[in-house]
Design goal:
Layout: H1 2-42, H2 45-53, H3 55-78, H4 85-113, H5 115-118, H6 125-147, H7 150-179, H8 185-217, E1 220-224, E2 227-231
Antiparallel strand pairs: 1-2
């Protein structure tokens, strides 16, 4: 019995270390999103390059985290260590959330790569509102990971439709400005591209929020026309 307890304790310690790495990865992803949006609004190509460079460390940690999670499960299996369902869920969620964070970082790189296309064009306030909303969602979902907070995860889920509403407002604004001769077509296409990128960031964030809820409560949620619902399996 003492051996089994020691094995379980060792697993828990390693899992806590991996969780710590995931939390640090979340902070890196918030930083790259902040940097990419700031570079875009400042129309600063050099800052955009620095933002894109932050992705190198995120990619490295992404691979390392997945390898650590796989090795942790392999070690547990090799030691015939019986794990409670909540710990198995935690490892699975680390892998899934880690992947989604990497995808968010890719979106941030995509945004930074489009800074050069702005060419001094005026950006409507509706787009800034959309970006601020998305940054808030990324911060919230990373906080929900770090604090294992299902309530914050639920806030992220509810914010997804808000982001889509802001995206539609950006596109309507662009259409009206084109019609009034206040915006060029190239700028409108740029806004459409980046608004879609913001929507993707929100989607990845809600995927993480689903996993946080699953890890902490065992609840599985799915999105339907009426909103987010719990699914009984």
């Amino acid at each position: 019995m003492a051996g089994e307890s020691s094995q379980s304790s060792g697993f828990t310690t390693k899992l806590e270390l991996i969780r710590g790495e995931l939390n640090a990865q979340g902070r890196r992803v918030v930083a790259i999103c902040d940097a990419a949006f700031e570079a875009f609004f400042d129309d600063d190509g050099e800052a955009a390059g620095r933002a894109a460079a932050l992705d190198d460390e995120i990619d490295r940690v992404d691979v390392a985290l997945e390898q650590q999670a796989v090795m942790l499960l392999c070690d547990a299996a090799g030691e015939a260590n019986e794990l409670p369902p909540n710990q198995i869920r935690e490892v699975l969620v680390v892998v899934k959330a880690n992947n989604e964070l990497e995808r968010i970082a890719d979106c941030a790189v995509h945004i930074s790569e489009h800074v050069a296309k702005r060419s001094g064009a005026e950006i409507p306030e509706t787009f800034r509102v959309l970006c601020n909303s998305v940054i808030g969602i990324v911060r919230d979902v990373c906080r929900s990971i770090e604090q294992r907070d299902p309530d914050t995860a639920k806030l992220v889920l509810r914010a997804e439709d808000t982001v889509r509403g802001f995206k539609n407002a950006v596109l309507r604004d662009a259409e009206q400005r084109i019609a009034a001769g206040e915006m060029g077509v190239d700028t409108a296409f740029l806004l459409h591209e980046l608004a879609s990128c913001c929507e993707h960031i929100a989607d990845h964030s809600t995927n993480i929020a689903e996993q946080v809820l699953y890890a902490v409560t065992g609840t599985i949620v799915r999105h339907c026309e009426a909103g987010w619902i719990e699914v009984n399996l």
